[in-house]
Here is the input.
Amino acid sequence: MSTPADEPAADPVDDAEAIAHARLLAEVSALPSLPGVYRYFDAQDAVLYVGKARNLKKRVSSYFQKDHGGTRIGHMISRIVRMETTVVRTEAEALLLENNLIKTLNPKFNILFRDDKSYPYLKLVHHPFPRVAYYRGAVDRKHTYFGPYPGAWAVKETILLLQKAFRLRTCEDTVFANRSRPCLLYQIRRCSGPCVGLIDPAEYGRDVAHAERFLRGDSQAVIESLQERMMSLSDALEFERAAEVRNQISALSRVLHQQSVEESSLSARDRDVDILAVRVQGGRACVNLAMVRGGRHLGDRAYFPAHVEEAAALSAEQADDLAGQTAVEPQVLEAFIAQHYLGVAPPPSLVTSHAVDAGLLDALSVQTGVRLAAQHQPREQRRVWLEMADKGAQIALARLLAEEGSQRERTRALVEALDLAVDDLDRFRVECFDISHTAGESTQASCVVYEQHAMRNADYRRYNIDGITGGDDYAAMRQVLLRRYGKVAEARAAANLAGTEEAVPAKGLRLPDLVLVDGGRGQVSMARDVFIQLGLDLSLIVGVEKGEGRKVGLEELVFADGRDKVYLGHDSAALMLVAQIRDEAHRFAITGMRARRASVRTGGSRLEEIAGVGPKKRARLLQRFGGVRGVGAASVDELASVEGISHELAEEIYRALH
Here is the structure.
């Protein structure tokens, strides 16, 4: 007969998990039967999933009422340690809150669309002689905006069109106010020369009005108005001016002929339409968004969501709660609509490749103030647009899959060529370092990161190198490696003292699987000394040594742990990947060095101190106005006209420099 002393001791870890699970179930049973949003968190407090429900208690309980085994939903539930819920008044409010949280929290098991680019607009700047300009940022009521456009190329193409047909000016107000003779654009008949009085305000105003009507889709009315003016000038024997109007009509007619749509065939509701087509293949999805504004097809843009497989698997396993909807395409499409139009004003009409939930459209109508209607089986012109968008989605997805397949094979080739012990190819991480300076001036080191078969721009870092002899690349490499991996070594030492095998949790403190150094034996030797000093694995260090004649494709790999040099071959997939990473490190170092050098020489540090003004925006400002002094002399409106500078940021820059 066994005694209590014979029984095995309880595992405190298992007890803690059981207590946490019981607490979680108690929270679930106490949930109200009301609409709301729920969020699941893991042990690291990372968000696993965000969901909405008409009935919180019923929906959340369904996750915990049965054993899901080794399915994706079972895997997710096993990681849940706590949850948060928010009760709302209606299901529409739950839908909007859900997608706001998805965009901000980036949960692992939700379909997520990332888009860090705002849409550009065509801006008609208010002025006695208005000008047309490219604009990206928040719109205001001081000027007139047309768009949004799918990309910068579409705006610039439209501006060129307006220059040809209506000869509107594009020069900055500061340039316009100081001209003494017309510029080259006047000579090539792209501007009517208002800066030197070659056109009176009334006539220029007519051209502006015609341009506005054209951009709003009334191109046929514009042509009729121009024809009437041409005839009246002809009757008044002003044949030269009549010929100019005739040329305007010809230019406008050529543009309209290039469009695949006849103005008269479009109804009022077809003037502003977004066309959305979705394709899913190979675990990836693409939503292609085509824009029609003023009856003109402006082009399209493809979006590729993350976490499609995880979210689709969860939805399939919860099909009963989703009214039987298990197809991936409608889920992807609705996720895009919900997330995209929370931050972008939608047109009144959507044409979609799949049916969209009416509740989603109603909720977005309330949120945006635009009454939305969607059609997924269109006819006539809309059908043509949808077929074009669908073809674009198919092509974009095929290209993505081909690129990802090729890149994955390059990763595999590199791992095999270097005989690396990598458990998960998708988590294989490479960090590459390069040094750049100009005759010892403004030395900078770059660190670029390759992970998940792609360059990870968000993980890139630049290091300003100080306290060394100018031009000493070895000392610069030593400094950057100590700064990058010193904290990693400290964290690993602390973990060893604590007697734990836990990996360092902080992403910035993770040791990569491979450290590439742009250089030969000298740089590798320096990296070797640093790793010995820090107690890190020397086998991680590989130098990229230029081959004979420094020709591309003849590079050799140099190892810090004593292995012989390796030449992979000019057509090796592994060498192609090494060259790609090395070249990116070189590019990143050079651009940083040039920006730092420009800052030193022009006094750009005054701009560096302004929050929101990074290297790209600073370079654009300095280029536009010829230096910090010119930036300081510019008005708020002139600053806001620079690409990437919003009106609020322009006001901040103006205050900082005055």
Notes: The chain has five domains: 15-90, 120-265, 268-399, 425-596, 603-656. Confidence is low (pLDDT under 50) at residues 257-265, 320-325, 501-505. The domain at 603-656 is CATH 1.10.150.20 (DNA polymerase; domain 1). Residues 2 and 8 are 11 Å apart (CA to CA).
